[in-house]
Amino acid sequence: MNIVIYGTGGIGGYFGARLAQAGNNVTFIARGKQLEAIQKNGLQLKSVKGDYLLKPAVATNDIFEVKEIDVILICTKTWQLAEVAKTIKPVLNENTVVISLLNGCDNHEVLSSIIDKKHVLGGLCKVVSFVEDYGVINHVAYEPTIVFGELNNTKTNRALELKNTLVNAGIKTVLANDIQKEIWTKYLYITTVSAMGALTRATHGEMLASPYIKNMLLQTAQEILEVAKAKGVNLPGDIIQKQFDIIESLPYETTASLQRDIMNGKPSELEAQNGTIVRLGKELGVATPVNEFIYYTLLPQEKKARGLS
Q1: Range of 268's domain?
Q2: Into which family does the record put it (predicted)?
């Protein structure tokens, strides 16, 4: 397949490298020193599942250089999604599939508001990886997984073909029976731990070791569940326990990308995560006091990182 990875950070770098390793034509959209390093030295993947050096790697900052694109996997930050959608709109052909692997519960809605909905599939990923250095991706934990599906949950030929491509690249793949359920399951997990990690400056293990903080995490998750229910998302009753089983299975020192961004003074996905829960809670009449506390406490630093304070 002719695949574009839009955003070559921890997520895009990992999945793109594996897809290229399997023989697909992969073009990485990157910028700045990351782009320069990949063009010069290739893309170095360090992984608990095996290292790989993709050299040469096809990388550019101009998607118009890529022709006849089959699939675009968007792997930037959630707050960049609308801008990316506007950028890719002119290069889409009749059959191009676009999937956001970003954190968030409404990414497919953002995409569909800018590009033709026929191109859009719902999606998400699960992996703990980050940019260790320019051109170097380090995958440290979790079985890298991509979950995706048609927005109407039908098993189309294009969805089945993409599933085969991902599986052949050694990527754990789930073609969802209910993509909204899958998106909100991931969203509940990531929104529960990320901003609280930023607020406490603590790792997953450190937060879980504190009964007080763990209880706040549970309250955060319960509010997210109530918002999802109000939106009509079909989440199972044991969803919170299952997500905490995952959190507790990760290495003690695990941190989330939102947390790392805020701690490093960078713009983060705060608005797409806890901010969205606060907004949806108000729209749907669901009380979200813990998410409000987390969101509004971190908001001044978020504004400062964006030059808005």
Answers
A1: 181-305
A2: Belongs to the ketopantoate reductase family.
Does residue 195 contact residue 273 with C-beta atoms inside 8 Å?
Answer: yes
Note whether 245 and 140 are same-domain residues. no
159, 149 Cβ separation under 8 angstroms: yes
In the beta sheet, which residues pair with residue 4?
A: 27, 72
Q: Domain check: are 198 and 159 in the same one?
A: no
How far apart CA 201 and CA 34 sit, in angstroms, is 27
Same domain, 120 and 140: yes
Domain count, the chain: 2
* Chosen domain end from 125, 153, 177: 177
Please report, as a single letter, which amino acid is at residue 6: Y
Burial of residue 218 (CB within 10 Å: 0-12, 13-18, 19+) is: middle
Residue 46's CATH number: 3.40.50.720
Query: Alpha carbon of 52 to those of 13, 19, 140: distances in Å?
Result: 11, 12, 14
Tell me how far apart the alpha carbons of residues 148 and 151 are, in angstroms, rounded to a whole number. 9
**Which pLDDT tens digit goes with each residue over 4-44?**
999 999 999 999 999 999 999 999 999 999 999 999 999 99
End residue of a domain, out of 177, 209, 225: 177
> CA-CA distance, 52 to 18, in Å (whole number)?
8
Residues 40 and 141 in one domain: yes
Q: Are 255 and 203 in contact (CB under 8 A)?
A: yes
pLDDT mean across residues, the chain: 96
- pLDDT at position 167, please? 98
pLDDT at 128 over 90: no
Residue-wise pLDDT for 164-219, tens only, equals 999 999 999 999 999 999 999 999 999 999 999 999 999 999 999 999 999 999 99
